[in-house]
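Hey,
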Amino acid sequence: MSESAQHQQLVQLIISDVIYTVGQDHNCFISSDAVDEFSLSPYTEEGFRPDLFYLFKDHLIIGEAKTSDDIERIHSKQQYESFIRKCSLFEGSAIFIAAVPWKDHATIHNILQKIRKKYPGNYLIKILDGIGGTI
């Protein structure tokens, strides 16, 4: 399925953030089904493939980009839940990153906080919203 240009920009935002976080030497552990230069992300137990997956030693990062039309869809909410569940069960450092257009920050925040209540644990949820950019 061909992704929109905006979706690709959001995925690139996640990738840039992850490379900044883990360092250039570890970007080889990034998987992404949305960008050709990386290997495919693995599926979660529920059958969802995130836009970005990073696993190295005891560090897990899962990233998902959503355009305004997709944020509140049932399929998207199922994806968020699957990815957050995986982070909550991970024994180590885990981060779930959602990238959305800046105007959708509050919407995604509210959705993710509801899901987080179902899956307690020692993991972070990070929202990238392209403030200052063209997204």
